[in-house]
Amino acid sequence: MPRWGVVSSIASPVLLIAGWTVAARLQPPSFSQVADTVSALAAPGATDRWVMTLVFVVVGACDVVTGAALRPAAAAGRAILIAGAVAGMLVAANPEHAGSGSVAHAVWAALGFAGLAAWPLAAWRRGRSVPWGLRPRVCLSAVTVQLVLLVWFIAELVSGGGLIGLAERFVGAAGAVWPLAVVLTCRGSTRLPRWSLDLPAPKVGLPSSRLQRGHSVNATRK
Question: How many CA atoms lie within 13 A of 113 on its CB side?
Answer without folding.
Answer: 22
